[in-house]
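Before a colleague's protein record goes any further, I have to sign it off. I want your independent view on whether this chain really folds as the tokens say. The record follows directly below this note.
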Amino acid sequence: MTQHLNHYQQPVGFPLPEWQLRALPQRVTLLGRTCRLEPFSVEAHGRALYQAWQRAPDGRDWTWMPVEPFASEEDYLAWARNMEASRDPLHFTVIDLSSSQPTGTLALMRIDAQNGVVEVGHVTFSRLLRRSTAATEAHFLLMQYAIEQLGYRRYEWKCDNCNAPSKAAALRLGFQPEGVFRQVVVYKGRNRDTAWFSIIDGEWPRVKSAMQRWLAADNFSADGQQRQRLETLREEVNNA
């Protein structure tokens, strides 16, 4: 990488002479091949999502979430009203196109338009969505919106360092690990060390290319099984 020096011959970051404040994410609908992201709505999505959460046999899906499983539909809808009203985090619902049913939510959060930094978080995927093509496409659609359409230069993923499935998901999607921030949060009466990951704008074309190849219809057999893994396709793109 080229080293940039100021007039004192001190090393400084590379120049961004055209940089401007980025627009804030909006309540938009994003359409993919297997899913659609809609602005979260209690009326349109709340009850169906609560029913989707009930498919889990126990509460382990909520271990690293900021809340526990909801005791009743009314409790969830009360929480969901706060989600709908929030602008940061800005929540989206994942609609499975094969069933037209809400199957999960995720959000853009810690939105820093001044510096072009945003985080994906509050990822709450039901058993109807987890480990599906639509789960990957939901992340792709939100990444594309933030980086490509809004022009954000850094897209973050953070999770409890104990949350091995979340860290594996970040790596699979193409995020780069950046280390662990120790003793950052106290939640549910316990410590959280936070693992940090990111994708920056210069990496996005390769991440996008691999994800588009993985999501393409011809990468799946008639029974929906992937022909090539996302990690394999990304390695091919990076080595091309």
